[in-house]
Amino acid sequence: MRLDLAILVLVVTALVAWLGWQTRTTEPGVEAIGLAQVLGDAPAHFRRVTEPVALEFPRDHGAHPDYRSEWWYFTGNFETADGQRLGFQFTLFRFALNEAQTAQSDWATDTLWMAHLALSDGRSRRFFQAERFARGALELAGATESRWWLRDWVVNATPSGWHLVADGGDFALELNLDQVRPLVLQGDSGYSRKGPEPGNASRYYSATRLEASGRIRLDQQWLEVTGLAWLDREWGSNQLSETLAGWDWFALHLDDGRDLMVYRLRDHDGNASPWSAGALVERDGSSRTLQHTDFTADALTWWRDPDGQRWPLSWRIRVPDAGLDLTTRPLFEDQLWTRSVRYWEGMIDVIDSASGQPLGRGYTELSGYAE
Length: 371
Description:
The protein is mainly beta. The protein has one helix at 5-26, and strands at residues 69-80, 85-96, 111-121, 126-135, 141-143, 147-150, 153-158, 161-167, 171-179, 184-185, 191-193, 201-218, 221-236, 244-254, 259-267, 277-281, 287-290, 296-304, 310-319, 324-330, 336-338, 342-352, 358-367.
């Protein structure tokens, strides 16, 4: 569950500005891409998600150019051999243009790509972030069923999952991400509704438990790490209802072996939308969809960022039918994305609300608070 409309506007504005600058300085014969190409209602030629369909793998790991946008989203928590905590995020975004560029150039494209890479260092409480853009030309970026990439940030499929390599300059990741449970098809067999109108939906699936291992570079030092990661995949056109302002998303690995994901869609008054949803995955890999009536998520504490914006960082999440009453809290507060778009994405601890005992770890994403 990712990237609300307000964030999309900011992201694409920055992306288009960058691509326009690149066009003028490196390819004078190619006209700049306009904002109208990627903002506003998706033109009729883009497919809408309006009903369940059977997903096919590995085909659906690749791109879906008939839809307006999609993303490939990893998050995860790690430990070093001496118990030091680290977390990561890697995301690849695809945005289709309303119309393909008509200029006769190898740089002409019908697709824009963006990637986000972040590392949370629990030892020093530092948050590292890097961002890249590319046009969908000359193989600069893309996604097939076996490879997702933007320049040299690459995810390759392996027999057991995926292998990620990405260098953000002052930090880098080389990770094996092995899938140990079946894919979870969110919503109704992967049909995830986000509003009342036809097309307010996405195709959405998750690999909720990936056994992660590899190494991370920080301050010129390579650290061997192990842990658990999560993959979210979504695509669609006009996914979100205009009644929504943002969301609060939680992906939790519980120590009892269960995985829990809930997202709280917010209306413009800050109230939970009836289109909020989630999924609970049992130890044997079986899963069930959670409707908005199956859980509650209530903010407990807030953090004010350096610009004065408030973010709800600690939460109480209850799933009564599953016997869960959890409190989530960040390992540290400042895990705030501040590049072309502003959102909070960070590693969290999960504790029992009554006893305070640790119950697991996870990731939280908060969007729509800084626009």
